Amino acid sequence: MKYDFLINEEYKSTRIDLVLSLQLEEVSRSFIQKLLEKGAVSVNGSVCSSKKYKVSEGDRIEITVPEPEMLNVEAENIPLDIIYEDDDVLVVNKPRGMVVHPAVGNESGTLVNACLYHCKDRLSSINGVIRPGIVHRIDKDTSGLLMIAKNDMAHESLSKQLAEHSITRRYEALVFHNIKEDEGTVDAPIGRDPNNRLRQAVTNQNSKRAVTHWKVLERFGSCTLIEARLETGRTHQIRVHMAYIKHPLVGDFVYGPKKQPFNVEGQLLHAKILGFVHPRTGEYMEFEVPRPAVFEEVLDKLKK
Fold first, then answer.
1. Is residue 7 classed as helix, strand or coil in its secondary structure?
2. Around Cβ 227, how many Cβ atoms within 10 Å?
3. Does the pLDDT value for residue 303 go beyond 70?
């Protein structure tokens, strides 16, 4: 697949391999470096093979990433933080830094690799060999709750609930600046950024409706802790919507400032509450997990 985008001011003077790894979150930085060596990356129409090249504002970057059909997804004995499990559903607390499913250049160490080991052959097949059991996903650096379908019946039920917007998904996020209002809703369509094909954006071009409800939990002057409730589930939805209203997430190098405080890599976004109707019993179930340590450490610094 080919991607192209323009470098804006916030990324100027940054190494090209870092810029690409921030944009293509599921492709490892080492694999991007290999693509550079193979001539799969061009800058302003000329092949760029140096990972140390520092991009300039206005540079047009093109990168060709191989299609993932031939991935050999292996089961790996990776510890899982299991919150709930039965014969139909697995609910896990995904740590920051873990990719949900394999992609080219990132074939191991993912949640899918871990689930294949834990569940053996008891995962739904609806999403194929690369994403078995995966009903929904969260970004690599987003922590928190995910539901895994252990059979096709469960997968179909949970997918239907997602489509009907009946699943409870509440996140906590730390955003920049003081939000004056106590709560609000962002109802703005999200699609590929017309100026940067590696990002999402609020746009009317080839987009889908996206709705995020938010409320303030605590204010720190320079930052605000919010709860965000998803009505829809678009790629990077909370990150895009909060940046759209001028409150990007702390740690988000893609949609926020390049220079980040607190020495945090990756957005401070946590999927705290997940609720759904059990596919077999019809019982409503809701789960909650605490914020990860790195999130709490930043909040402690702000409180002090």
1. coil
2. 16
3. yes
Could you give the CA distance from residue 258 to residue 43 in angstroms, rounded to a whole number? 21
Instruction: Say if residues 27 and 104 touch (Cβ distance below 8 Å).
Output: yes
The token duo for 102 is: 């394999």
pLDDT per residue as tens digits for the range 115-166:
999 998 899 887 776 688 999 999 999 999 999 999 999 999 999 999 899 9
State the pTM of this model: 0.80
> Phi and psi of 293, rounded to 5°?
-60, -40
Q: Which of 280, 203, 214 is nearest to 249 (CA)?
A: 214
| 139 in active site | yes
Give the start-end residues of each E strand in the chain: 2-6, 41-43, 46-47, 60-64, 82-85, 89-94, 143-149, 168-176, 183-187, 190-193, 196-202, 211-219, 223-230, 269-277, 284-288
Tokens describing residue 159: 């997918």
Digit-coded pLDDT (tens) for 189-226: 999 888 776 789 999 988 999 999 999 999 999 999 99
The candidate with the shortest Cα–Cα distance to 71, out of 34, 45, 40, 110, is 110
* Buried-exposed string 192-215: b where 16+ CB fall within 10 A, e elsewhere: bbeebbbbbbbbeeebeebbbebe
Which entry of 17, 59, 88, 139 is annotated as an active-site residue? Answer: 139
How distant is the alpha carbon of residue 164 from its chain centre? 21
Question: What integer pLDDT is reported at residue 92 of this predicted model?
Answer: 98
Amino acid (one-letter) located at 161: Q
CB 128 within 8 A of CB 165: no
The percent of residues in the chain predicted with pLDDT above 70, rounded, is: 96
